[in-house]
Design a protein that fits this description.
The chain is an alpha/beta fold. The protein has two domains: 4-175, Rossmann fold, CATH 3.40.50.620; 205-321, TPP-binding domain (Rossmann fold), CATH 3.40.50. It has helices spanning 18-34, 48-54, 75-87, 99-112, 219-228, 237-241, 272-275, 307-321; strands spanning 4-8, 11-12, 15-16, 37-44, 60-65, 92-96, 115-120, 122-126, 129-136, 141-146, 152-156, 171-175, 205-209, 232-235, 262-266, 283-288, 301-304. Strand 2 and strand 3 (15-16) form a beta hairpin.
Length: 324
């Protein structure tokens, strides 16, 4: 049976996430290599806009209007739609390795018994099955995994696949929702985190505070530069463990994986566990008093100095160049 590869999209603030475009690009590449076809799935209270975006990457997109997602978690609803498409011939599923994506993948494994290749950085088609590649052990090794049963699910980490649109936009197929696969939990409250208008994964500029920032108050210089550069604040595990910033800001092996155009690290030592989450950045700039800090090994520009002197000077220079 020819491969039919499904990319499951996520929607944030009414738009497609960047990771969804990467998952769609990977699904299309796998399908083309296997001599099959690819399609996308958007399940949302208002899927039309995101589905149209996704159609720029895939020849066919199924758009399911699920009004319940306004106040329910998505996994049961999305898993039900994926299960329906599996019954229509889908052989492989690509899902972003996000909080919701992992919930969806776990629900599908329980419902279908399909195999799961988790936290892939990329994948390719080899013979009659996909092979995923993942950086593990703090960047010290790369694993290759495949599905022994043929069909299965892949969860994709951000940044490993470059998103690219298809030569010809695809068609959107609207559908009514099916019954949720399992009971859906109700969302009782939504809390908007300050400075989180753009997710870490989608940000083009990420300014990161490490242990050297020293305190919650010290993060003011990180937030100032992030604001001036139109970026997002990130943190190391040490900063999060100290309670200076929320876990949602953590970058690294046990946090988020980012690949911005500019990574600016202030007081970041650059332990391997952190570097796994940011070493794919296009340009890496680091400020640290320790000239032997490990982050110097991956930095394009390494400034040896006190971040509380360098950061304000940089902020002043940015304002001067902007005429303010």
């Amino acid at each position: 049976m020819p491969a039919l590869v499904l990319a499951v999209a996520e929607v944030a603030d009414g738009s497609l996430t960047r990771l969804s475009t990467e998952a769609a690009t990977l699904a299309r590449a796998l399908a083309e290599a296997a001599g099959g076809t690819a399609l996308g799935l958007v399940v949302d209270a208002a899927p039309a806009g995101p589905a149209a975006e996704l159609a720029g990457y895939l020849p066919r997109v199924v758009a399911v209007t699920a009004a319940e997602l306004a106040d329910q978690v998505p996994a049961p609803h999305v898993a039900a739609e994926v299960a329906r498409l599996l019954g229509e011939g889908v052989t492989h599923v690509v899902i972003g390795a996000t909080t919701d994506g992992r919930d969806i993948a776990g629900t599908l494994v329980g419902l279908t018994g399909l195999g799961l290749l988790a936290n892939a950085d990329t994948a390719s088609w080899d013979g009659d099955a996909p092979v995923t590649r993942s950086v593990v052990l703090g960047g010290r090794a790369v694993t290759e995994s495949t599905l022994s049963g043929g069909s299965g699910i892949i969860t994709l980490r951000p940044g490993g696949v470059g998103a690219s649109e298809a030569a010809v936009p695809g068609a959107v197929e609207p559908r009514e929702p099916s019954t949720p696969a399992v009971p859906a939990a109700v969302v009782l409250e939504r809390v908007a985190e300050a400075g989180a208008e753009v997710s870490l994964e989608d940000a083009r500029v990420v300014v990161v505070g490490g242990r050297g920032v020293g305190s919650p108050e010290g993060f003011a210089v990180v937030e100032e530069l992030a604001g001036l550069l139109g970026g997002v604040v990130g943190a190391t595990r040490a900063s999060v463990d100290a309670g200076w910033v929320p876990y949602a800001r953590q970058i690294g092996q046990t946090g988020r994986v980012v690949k911005p155009a500019l990574y600016l690290g202030l007081g970041v030592s650059g332990a391997m566990q952190h570097r796994v989450g940011m070493q794919g950045s296009e340009v890496i700039v680091a400020v640290n008093r320790d000239q032997d800090a490990p982050i110097a090994e991956v930095a394009d520009l390494f400034v040896i100095g006190d971040l509380f002197q360098v950061a304000p000077a940089l902020a002043t220079e940015i304002r001067v160049r902007r005429g303010g």
